[in-house]
Design a protein that fits this description.
The protein is an alpha/beta fold. It folds into 2 domains: 270 residues, Aldehyde Dehydrogenase, Chain A, domain 1; 184 residues, Aldehyde Dehydrogenase, Chain A, domain 2 (3-Layer(aba) Sandwich). The protein is built from 15 helices and 21 strands. Ligand TXE binds next to helix 8, helix 9 and helix 12.
Length: 492
Amino acid sequence: MQDYKMLIGGAWVGASGGESFETENPYLGAPWALVPRATTDDVDRACEAARKAFRAPSWAGLTATARGALLRRLADLIAAEADRLAEIETRDNGKLITEMRAQLRYIPQWFHYFGGLADKVEGRVIPIDKPGMINFTREEPLGVVAAITPWNSPLMLATWKLAPALAAGNTIVWKPSEFSSVSALEFARLFEKAGFPPGVVNVLTGFGSEIGERLVSHPHVAKIAFTGGDRTGQSVYELAARSIKPVTLELGGKSANIVFKDADLENAVKGVVSGIFAATGQTCIAGSRALVHRSIQDEFVGKLVELGRTARMGDPLLETTQVGPITTRSQFKKVLDYIDIAKGEGARPVLGGSQASRPECGNGWFVEPTIFADVKPSMRIAQEEVFGPVLSVIAFDDDEEAIEIANDTQYGLAAGVWSQNIKTVFTLAQRLEAGTVWINSYRATSYLSPFGGYKRSGIGRESGLTAIREYLQEKSVWIDTIGEVANPFVQR
Ligand code: TXE
């Protein structure tokens, strides 16, 4: 087993307590690497290093153009290593090599884009109403950004934070999930290789329950960018509030794929299947509710089952595998528990509904692609995030009811609409309470387009032009050109 070190202040170090932990391969259900178990002392060291780097001329003194060049150099290094990093991700989180390779080959675009944007952030000169005064604004970095990332798309979701944060001139303490630390450590080498000064990017591996609180509340940390579960997100937000820190939160969802009776059904079936079974349903944007017009319900469910049944399960490193294992033991148990809950609530399993015992699944943590019909909007299976390959089919009678059911959850991350009717799609695009709406499509994201949640799905946006603002603060500068202080007892 390879024994990894973490990165603090440009040095590769073990945890100060001397402990490491095993990271497991979900397909084999067995450990494959050792990773340092960071302590709160390590958090302090990393935050200190990041603050020092933030103030050092080697970073603070760089022009925005030079920062952008570093990001673009990094992009090229990632592109050269994409396939190797993808394989590490698959080993660590069990997601399909085909998906991870596509993600890793796409990640460089974020660093190119935000690298290009670094020197296009401009302040304003304001035509101020006070004679003899000049007023202008500066867009300044916040300082040390704590990036806390999950296990489902580890490097992609870290990139969404690191690229704009670094382009804006911040420094980083990155805590990857304890279930997917290795790719983060391998990725971090590339920052060094690209020429980022020591301490600009620090990586702390360890358990959220042990070091998360210290990291969020650390006085040197100016902002928290978090992707993960909504409960953890809530406690991060509460803790950040105590020291008045801004946050970006992306917290998952219960997204609806809405199929109208005039939809191209063949495409809609593929879209709904890709929304829930791709990535074994372990994506924040999983389309875990299929809202289907009652008149086509039986036909549509039949087609879903037919396609879902063909899914090839097994080794995620094989090109031919379509549904891999669940990433963690606890998530595996959670998914199976939700299947039991759904059955107990009266939902009718029409596909799967159990742990997978196919020979090609070996000892891995596999759940059969599962579809429940006869789901009622009030059931827990229709309201709570499962984060696994479990689809709930809910019938609706008209457009108004479809909108009502779609919006009737505490989440609001994404939605899909399947219809050929232009009036329907425009109405839905407007009225769905979701940060992303796909029409006759599902699961498209880009470095160019903002991504984030409504309601309990989160705060702030990642990707696209406005994302860099999440990592900047605006300063107003006043210059008096008259050179004479007027009445000191009256405000100017
Ligand atoms: O996530 P956690 P978990 C959802 C999904 C899943 C559930 C739990 O429904 O079943 O969350 O998954 C760090 N202070 N999503 O337990 O705990 C942790 O170490 C600071 C949706 O794995 O939210 C990791 O780095 N940080 C999601 C990160 O938070 C803490 C993706 C996320 O872990 C912390 C993953 C603390 N007190 C799960 N405790 C999405 N939005 O895509 C933990 N962490």
